Each structure stands twice: as C-alpha cells, then as structure tokens.
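User: Structure please.
Assistant: Input sequence and predicted structure:
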Amino acid sequence: MGKGTVDIELVVVIVLLGLLVLVSLALLPKLWRSQADIQREETTKSWPFGEAFRAGFLRSIPAAVLALLMLELGLIAAFFAEYLTGEGSRFADRLTVYFGTAFVVMLLVDLSVRLFNRPKFIVPPDARSEPGAVRLWWSSRKRRRSN
C-alpha cells in the first residue's frame, strides 16, 4: 500500500482481534478465580486428548490472552509504522519487533504451562498444584499398561 491509502484488511484484523482481546481480558478475572463455565468436568468428553489436554488448556488461557494482546499491539505498531514518517516510523518499527518477540515468548510460555504447568506465576492459583499435561498423560498411560 502507498502512503496515501489505508490497508483496510489490516484495519479489519486489528479491530476484530481487538474485540477478541477486550472480551478475553474482561473474562480473565473470572477464569483466574476458577469461576469460568468451561471448567465443568462433563466438558472433558469433547476434548480430543481428554482430561490432560482440557486441564492444560484451562491453565494456559492467561498466557494465551497475553499472547493475543502482544499480537494486537504489534499489529497496531505495524499499522503506524506503515503510515508514519521519520522517527515515528522507526519507533513504530521497533515496537513491532518488540511486540512480535513478546508474542513468540508468550506462545512458548503458553506451551510450557500446558505441558508442564510452569511458570507458576502465570497459572491460575487453584491450578498451581496440578501436574502438567505431560505428567497426566504419562501417568494415565502407565495405568493403562499395568491393567
């Protein structure tokens, strides 16, 4: 796109992702206090890998929301980098790189929380004592083998 035209597709993505981030951030305190509807045990039957994956998914939602927030901020910075000039454009470029790096880091944290329940500070308090998905999966596999 040229400097005089607006990339409407990017604007639509920024707006829609922004709405998703806002709704996620609004629901995050409810999940943090373990009051989310998704935590019912009967939902386990619909998860592809059973209880281990469901529990890992629930524990990793805060990291996933933060990853989405970093992605949104990176997209906004990229939008401004495209339309600003001079020092403002260079600053927005740097922000895009920083937020992009933070996005990747948060995805790795999300994966770590799902699989190993680490780092504990980003896991909801009620779930900090639970084993990670790898340990749950491994122990269920050992139980099946011994039967």
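The mean pLDDT is 87.
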